[in-house]
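sorry for the late reply, my laptop died twice this morning and i had to redo everyting from scratch. anyway the thing you sent over, i finally got around to it. pasting the sequence first so we're on the same page, its 145 residues, then the predicted structure underneath. double check i copied it right bc i was rushing
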Amino acid sequence: MRNLMALLAGGVFGAGLFTSGMTDTTKVQGWLDVFGEWDPTLAFVMGGAILPMFFAWRIAARMKVSRLGTPFPTPRTDALTPNLIIGSTMFGAGWGLTGLCPGPAMAALSYGGVGGLIFLASMVAGMVIARPIKPLLEQRTPEIA
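ok and here's the structure:
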């Protein structure tokens, strides 16, 4: 049942990405081009995601386990860590330069051409490289409170 729900959620997510135009790199880059031909439609996409999740997290906070019986993940700390800062910077730079992030990159594979495939391969390479680098970063830099 858990795998079926994951498949259903992933399918709805992918359909939402496609329907909202989030798999179109020019739409994302248009959102970031505030001094040029700015496209504000991404704000509605974000609002359409943030608003229901606000209520979903409030409901989940009152529950011990999910409807499927699995425990919720433990909340993370609010501390700024080097991993968070570096990862956020890399994510934002990649998103701004290519107009893709992991979800839309996967969804766009079927029609994204060579550029989408290169982005996805680079993203996977970054994930592989991050594992050996992570301990080095954690040794060298303390948490920023």
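The helical segments are 2-20, 25-32, 41-61, 82-98, 102-107, 113-140.
thats about all i looked at so far, will dig more tmrw
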